[in-house]
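Protein in question quoted for reference:
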Amino acid sequence: MNVVVKNLTLIAGMLALATCASTSDQSAQTLTAPNLTQVSNSETLTTIKIDGSSTVYPITAAIGKEYAANQNNKVQVQVNFSGTSGGFKRFCAGEIDISNASRPITTEEMEACRKNNVAYIEIPVAFDALSVVVHPQNTWAKDITVDELKKLWEPGAQGKITKWSQIRASWPDRPIKLFGAGKDSGTFDYFTEAIVGKAKASRTDYTASEDDEVIASGVSKDPDALGYFGYAYYQEHKDKLRLVAVNNGKEEAPLPSRQLSLYHLYVRVRAP
């Protein structure tokens, strides 16, 4: 087994044991072991490239930092995020070594990997709880039903459902500002399939981003805003955001939590 496969196995092993963490630094990172400047000319510097889901990014970045801090690891770790779909595009093209994802790989992506002779190992690393959030000054939306979310986010709502009162008559006649995952995000795929009933079916007149920090920042600055993303990003900004409980309109609405995590987060590592 060569040095690349050994290092990929080490990082994947650590990721598989990782728990959800969060970080305020959402820029791309290149993490280098402290003693790399002392590597002799006879040794080849290995770079492990990681991209994909912004939801998995905090886990990967934290573990990457821990890995790079080991004096014995003569390796660079590049960690970036472009969304689950963006990561799969690069992964199946052979451009990166590890693809982070907040949904399973699709058959089309499997075929792209096969055509490019990219074999891989899938490793679930965590569960996440998709979270609907509003500004703390929003005193009316304590809970929301799946049907109300569908009414708000389905493609037919575009340009038509623009006020809170249109979602629930008892809510104020105020404009609603929407923030959510971009089209390359696995969270977008999961949310649209679970709420609207079809993956990628969504209104487009909202602030969309694969960077969950953009969503958190937007909602935290606007009392009329509503957004969704992974639970870790709520935890990072819980002093500036409020969770909205989601239910079916009949049972008690639970709030997202570590105990109520609903969908898998994955890494896919290129096989030797």
Summary: Residues 3-16 form the longest helix (14 residues).
